[in-house]
Specification:
The chain has about 230 residues and is of the alpha+beta class. It is about 30% helix and about 30% strand. The chain contains 8 helices and 11 strands. Strand 7 and strand 8 form a beta hairpin.
């Protein structure tokens, strides 16, 4: 679904969404439509180019397609995608949102609403093993970047497996595993025989370490600090 909005004021939502009065915004339109079929979505508010609903399992975001009719849905919590999908059926969109808000389990949700697909780490997140799943996904990656190669080298240190790794532009990043991520982030890059480190948290620090075991020890110390 092409959801990019037009760059001018020529877009007329009534052409594609005659069943949805968006004169007061998308959130109000969805709430009115939900009420019309016996559902309550009072928590919906307008965000940037979308409507959003805070639930007990993350934020549901809904946007509409600009060039073709369609509703895109994404459900995220602590940086993890629970599920996402798109359909042109407004009733199904509203029922999906309401079911998630009411606590419908992930597997039941994607079965009832086949246009919704579970996120890559969603089931691991639900089972409390998201860090383990993220490690395995990155270690199995075919993209042999500098960050991935460094993660492979650090995999021998079992004490690091409780932290949540990410790779960006060759840099390896660690945070606490969702949902306890907080504001601490440990970044490290391999620069020949030296490891360049950046710490973000209560204080910001940059320094170099000379050995892989030093890196592993420092990661543990960093997240253990008050």
């Amino acid at each position: 679904m092409n959801s990019k909005m037009p760059s001018n004021d020529s877009w007329d939502p009534t052409v594609l969404y005659s069943d949805l009065d968006m004169s007061e915004g998308l959130a109000e339109a969805l709430k009115r439509s939900a009420s019309g079929i016996g559902l309550t979505l009072d928590g919906l508010v307008d965000g940037f180019g979308r409507a959003e609903l805070v639930t007990g399992r993350g934020i549901v975001s809904i946007h509409v397609g600009a060039w073709e009719r369609g509703f895109g849905i994404g459900i995220h919590e602590s940086g993890i995608e629970w599920a996402s999908g798109a359909t042109d059926d407004l009733g199904q969109v509203l029922r999906s949102i309401a079911a998630w808000q009411d606590g419908e389990p992930l597997d039941d949700h994607v079965l009832e609403f086949p246009f919704m697909k579970p996120g890559k780490l969603a089931r691991a997140f639900a089972e409390g093993r998201v860090a383990e799943a993220q490690w395995q996904d990155l270690l199995d990656s075919e993209y042999r970047t500098g960050g991935q190669q460094l993660l492979v080298r650090l995999a021998q240190f079992g004490e690091l497996r409780s932290f949540f790794p990410e790779i960006s532009y060759g840099e390896l990043r660690f945070t606490e595993a969702p949902p306890r991520q907080g504001d601490r982030m440990f970044r490290v890059q391999s620069d020949g025989a030296v490891f360049r480190v950046r710490e973000s948290g209560p204080e910001r620090r940059e320094y170099a370490l000379g050995g892989l075991d030093e890196v592993a020890r420092r990661i543990v110390e960093f997240f253990a600090a008050d």
